[in-house]
Amino acid sequence: RTVYVNGTYLPETEATVSIFDRAFLMADGVYEVTSVLGGKLIDFEGHLARLERSLSELDIRKPAVFDDLLEIHRELVKVNGIEDGLVYLQMTRGSDGDRDFAFPDPETTEPTVVLFTQSKPGLANSPQAEKGLKIISIDDIRWGRRDIKTVQLLYPSMGKMMAKRAGCDDAWLVEDGHVTEGTSNNAYIVKGGKIITRQLSNDILHGITRAAVLRFAKEAQMTVEERFFTVDEAKQADEAFVTSASAFVMPVVEIDGQSVGDGTPGPVAKRLREIYLEESLKAAI
Ligand code: PMP
User: Which family does the similarity line name (predicted)?
Assistant: First the structure.
């Protein structure tokens, strides 16, 4: 695989980053994941805009390479022959060659920029979408700025492992009795034809797929309610699903061992998945 590190395309085995990089020492970095379908980038502009916001919220200087990111994404997709898959991008505060809690001088510290691809043949035809996900609910003990897409992913990883050990696929995070989001996706329920998902705030990531799916749902005259919901409400719902750049729209069929609806992917989730894939493929670049 060819990867991109700080201005250079090179084989992954030759790619290096400093051990003093603040992302390595302090999780001081942000990332984006963009899907590739048929060799094209899905929702690229949305991911770029969120990246810019994440950098700005953390006072990480926007590197000059920012304006070339589309070209770099396309080049990696091309040289690695990615039909279906992902482009992972990470930007960190870099380092001044030492370890210190205070940020290094942004004038003299160049952010680290890393991109690589992952090939995922048949990404849009995942058998998981036919089966639906089984999820568990766990406490959301993450920090209070989940709207910033940082590489601080230890607790989401632990949540995924808790789910696996329980024989499930994923976990929904719960704070003050309400579902915030999934470990790596936004969470939704459907009740009486209404699509319900938590309102945006610093408590959840502002999903790029969430924004697109809610727009398509409204365009298709579906009712969307952005508000808190509980795990109990989710268990009593007609349907549940999650959205993310890599899973698109994915039905949820079981929560804490209890079937949602009839325990199979529901019609609203299925329809939204179809619409999302169709519309975002049309707009892919
Ligand atoms: N919430 C969290 C915590 C996530 O990690 C992700 C995926 N990165 C999402 C939501 C979904 O965001 P997007 O649709 O932009 O992939």
Answer: Belongs to the class-IV pyridoxal-phosphate-dependent aminotransferase family.
